[in-house]
Protein 1
Amino acid sequence: MSDAAIADIADVTPDATKAAIETEVRQIGKRARAAARALALAPAETKRRALDRAAELIRARAEDIAAANEKDMEFGRAKGLNDALLDRLKLTPERIEGIAAGVAATAALPDPVGRVLAEWDRPNGLHIERVATPLGVIGVIYESRPNVTADAGALCLKSGNAAILRGGSESLNSSAALVSCLADALEESGLSRDAVQMIPTRDRAAVGALLRLSEHVDVIVPRGGKSLIERVQTEARMPVFAHLEGLCHLYIHAAADPEKAAAIALNAKMRRVGICGAAETLLIDKAVAETLLPRIASSLSEAGCELRGDAAARRIVPAMAEAVEQDWFTEYLAPILSVRVVDGIDQAVAHVNHYGSHHTEAIVTEDQAAADRFLAECDSAIVMHNASTQFADGGEFGMGAEIGISTGRMHARGPVGAEQLCSFKYRVRGTGQTRP
Amino acid sequence: MSDAAIADIADVTPDATKAAIETEVRQIGKRARAAARALALAPAETKRRALDRAAELIRARAEDIAAANEKDMEFGRAKGLNDALLDRLKLTPERIEGIAAGVAATAALPDPVGRVLAEWDRPNGLHIERVATPLGVIGVIYESRPNVTADAGALCLKSGNAAILRGGSESLNSSAALVSCLADALEESGLSRDAVQMIPTRDRAAVGALLRLSEHVDVIVPRGGKSLIERVQTEARMPVFAHLEGLCHLYIHAAADPEKAAAIALNAKMRRVGICGAAETLLIDKAVAETLLPRIASSLSEAGCELRGDAAARRIVPAMAEAVEQDWFTEYLAPILSVRVVDGIDQAVAHVNHYGSHHTEAIVTEDQAAADRFLAECDSAIVMHNASTQFADGGEFGMGAEIGISTGRMHARGPVGAEQLCSFKYRVRGTGQTRP
């Protein structure tokens, strides 16, 4: 995704500067750890009030935030960012209001800390509870999207975690302005402003320093492209909630309802092409390709989608471009769709598990047994039957705000919201029991 | 803990041998990945039958297993293992029967895969389920305890995971004999014997190779001492379920019931001194130290426990040895207890969070508010009120067999049984929904 974010990882800083940055990042981590200990015990109402206040401050300081963003835009233009990246960086008044509304919505979520996740009694009278607790200190590394600064910061705080934020270097001023709103709101609410901090330098050495700081950082959440995430997974000395790309597949099974297939294909690809739940590859059973593919292809083409097919698909729709091996591995995030004709479920599942990113896959079929098999055998965070892959979203799941969709299998999988940013502990209550 | 296991991590192997081992470990991983894909879809009844058959085979081959163990004992004696380590390595007929019974008990557990952990409907008619799935391939690195080979292997299989086992090098033959029972049982049940494999070499380079194999190994479970685990956490290129030492604290609060305090102190330390739930440090409020400590100290001394106290404790019980700073950091796993007099809860919690290993802590008090504070503020996997720390055990929690007690905060915390060795996925069922 963000090449800028990827470049930020490389280390080309002089040793003396690196040492100074290492020291600074360590200090940030130390303060975050202390703040996290206190925040973990903060009452739900205090956290809610702090986040509400942060939303107010974002609204009240909208002009300052816009001015800070304009500095970032100048920097970005000078750096030669393309239009898509500049658009992602840009904060309009509407977008700033959207950010404030998002923080207020997070404030209104049920508090995830202290929930009793399970409880039971033992024959010896011990009462055991599994209780949700914060994770601790969360490091978030992300693209030059200022809104993520507020979204991620607010979610971390809601779940009782301290956050250390490192956005793409172009968003430094915008992020600083937003972090100030969160930190000031924390302070006004009697909490520590160190509970949300950002790395205040564009220097790429700071990322390496953060990834080594296992003493003070409990988990790293990277958002971005494959190479960023692989690099983080290699370098991080703490657990990583990987938010890999969404190389999502839509599989049209032989027993698909043609209307549903056509509607879902168009929606899954074209509703928004730049989100991680957008379909990138269409798999279609050869039994129905002859009848269904021309219709799906023409509606996609009319909507402005380029199709790249394998040989069998191109025999049916000769206007398609040729798909090469690399296409099956590609998250286009653009109006392009690769198309492959398959023999049936086995081949569809094998394709998904080989080429996919374990994010979201959907099958269209009226055959319940076929759907069950596809849902069971695709090794992905989200598997869907007769629904568009674009529903892969915390909000659509009813989970409130999300920090992203985790494609790993540990701890958090799928949409990562406030609940998923929690750990748990066991609380055991006795009346003097000793173990025989 | 096992110095041998720690030494196994160091790399002193010639490069050519290392390359050969790297290739071999990679082949093991590749086979494990293929086996895991199939095992993830195996019916509960098939897994149960395979584990029952494994228990039968362990019983039927008890003599062969004992003979293999005798080779390991010779190796261990030649290597100069101390009596405690030799005892841990030794398999008597009773212990072999215990291992078989453990595998049969795991077979009888409810199947953890496919459980619907949560489900809800969305206003647009989508039905969403969170469903338990296996994690994939689990690498287990552990001490020279042959029973762990069977316990860990059986738990991984029960939860639909393929296992790659690497025990301490002295247990190689015993482990191989036990793994054969599991693998043969899998094969007889129509499953792949590759679902449970061991690293068939004593060479330490194999551990490094396993830790780098992120492509085929989804999680590493290390069991052992602090240095082993820190090394694994540094080198592993995949998530780690750390099973750190159990530096457990017992805190006698000012409002403690004297009878409960005395009984729990004796049990928490002395019931079994070698398990991770044994208390290592006693904290006692100065308000009751004068009256309670002499009684607790004398019952512990009578039971053969050495006490090492701070200055305040030694003023009250002058027979105590002097505790030095290192004592507060030490998991004795022996009849030794460090004793510190504290001002109250704040100091007790600060001590626990600074010196502890985030495993298990207990408070003895009749003051519910004090108990609630201690339970909330101690950042440990298990926190107990008026109960012995020796209850920190999957079996005592009613969870069946466990692979250990995780001291990390990600994914699995506390006792790790079959359920904790699962991940989950979201299953979404629609009727043709597209996203507006």
Protein 2
Amino acid sequence: MEEKKMIKFNEQEKIDSVNGALALRPQINEIVDEICERGYSNICWLGVGGTWASAMQATVHMKEMSAIETWAENAAEYLTTGNKRITKDTVVIISSVTGNTKEVVDAIKKIKAEVGATVISFVDAKEAILLDLADYKISYPINEQLKFFMVADRFMFNNGEFEDYEDMYAEFDKYLAQDLVEVEKQAEPFAIEFAKKHWNDEMHYFVGAGNQWGATYSYAMCYWEEQLWLKTKSITSNEFFHGMFEIVTKETPVTIYIGEDAQRPLSERVANFIPRICANYTIIDSKDYELKGISEKYRKHLSHHVMHAVNNRIDVHMEIETRHPMEIRRYYRRLEY
Amino acid sequence: MEEKKMIKFNEQEKIDSVNGALALRPQINEIVDEICERGYSNICWLGVGGTWASAMQATVHMKEMSAIETWAENAAEYLTTGNKRITKDTVVIISSVTGNTKEVVDAIKKIKAEVGATVISFVDAKEAILLDLADYKISYPINEQLKFFMVADRFMFNNGEFEDYEDMYAEFDKYLAQDLVEVEKQAEPFAIEFAKKHWNDEMHYFVGAGNQWGATYSYAMCYWEEQLWLKTKSITSNEFFHGMFEIVTKETPVTIYIGEDAQRPLSERVANFIPRICANYTIIDSKDYELKGISEKYRKHLSHHVMHAVNNRIDVHMEIETRHPMEIRRYYRRLEY
């Protein structure tokens, strides 16, 4: 009997994509090393929507290891409130698929005109205004978190806060791409079941923490709401207990992402409690996926990639179950607003 | 004909409460001045749930005016991820109703034991562990935002970033308490209508920005979810356009809070767009309330108080319409978790 082929899954393409991103590291390091040589005061990850979510992930990752001042700045908020912590000595890092996201373009224009901070720009497209405006630019598709984390890790390494840096990336270079496609394969039967069970939920709750939080927020908003037109709420694992959980009863659909970084106990706390009040919950734990060749101590750096790989398979099957093509938008970039 | 009496509205008690909070200012200033005299590196507003939301409000308020490094720290996240920006030179500010919130107690214990930062503690209760643990303590009920903003404003004044400080507080001392009860009175007919219309919503969306955002987040979670057991989602005005709005259609209940601080345009953008896609929206604009005696330029400092006063009246009528007493909890502090 022939094995059933996974749809929308080009294994080689996925492997090449991750390896191509990892291969940007020498280029990234050259940029970061030059900035560190020159000196800088703080690091600002700037975005909006999904890229702001990635910025939150980079920030919590750095907070766990580093004394460098760093934060996630929402581009639209910067344009109104401003931020006096952004000076000529600040490093601003952005990422954009199209390279023309309005709020980010306007924010970077303002920063270049009024402040003169150093801007590092990642854009999927080959040509874009957000590349033109940057001091340092890298054009390469997808893998946003990987790009951000490579930048963050190099800054921390140069600051003497990441002893194992070379060793860790040696493992990633060798194993990560293959490991992530293996995660997708392992997740496939679960994803099929999950989509069949939840495609028609009136409302779905997603809970996460640490480097999974930005991904949880953006998965709920940028995938289920934006691309599947399904109602969701996302909440951090810690805040779950401060009000939100009062509306959870037996049939409320709740999905909890558990990673392996420092905030793992916060999500475990939700996972341990939820069976008492809910019979419609799902736990997605990065620990359940092998990641062959990766040392135990580096797994916490990869939890969000595991989650992303699992979600990739959920998306494929949600799109089928809902019969809702994920590329259509009702309003986004279709209306003036 | 006798005027109908507003229920759960003791005007004199409310006036005394706000004036009592404003009267803490000399005591607050003595604390802040002493810290400024000694020197400090940064300011951390630490909380969880509703108090973390207030911390976000204090932070955005400061960001608009100040170059001081400041941020909102979630107590539960601090306990796991830590934060190397918190040092012995940091000022940590907390607020708690009971003074025994587990995550905050543990976080402050850790900070005092491992770091030795300066802790300013506001607690509603007269005696509490969070008062015992603090370097500076103030015991006074409710008015959390007012307490936080008085601290923030004094730090900015001492840093030469708030020229009008004395003039502004002279107006607040004279007019604010009365103005806020007038807001409640003005909001009453609206609140009655709103509660009648929305008490049975399957799901309600709250949108806000700037110093209204923390309040929007906590109103949705700590009031409707926790106290009324109604499903809500809150989203910032800017992020509304980055995914969430795709699920809004004609009958989706959406409430937009518009304040008068720098992020006002972000909420106006939602208000201007929403009629095209939704016929079940509500706009609550602080500008619609008079605030007699308060200069135009200081109104932006009060938007969140106006919103809070309006929400007070909504709560009263939601409690009646839902026949759901707001003091009952299903799980919060009733189960082990």
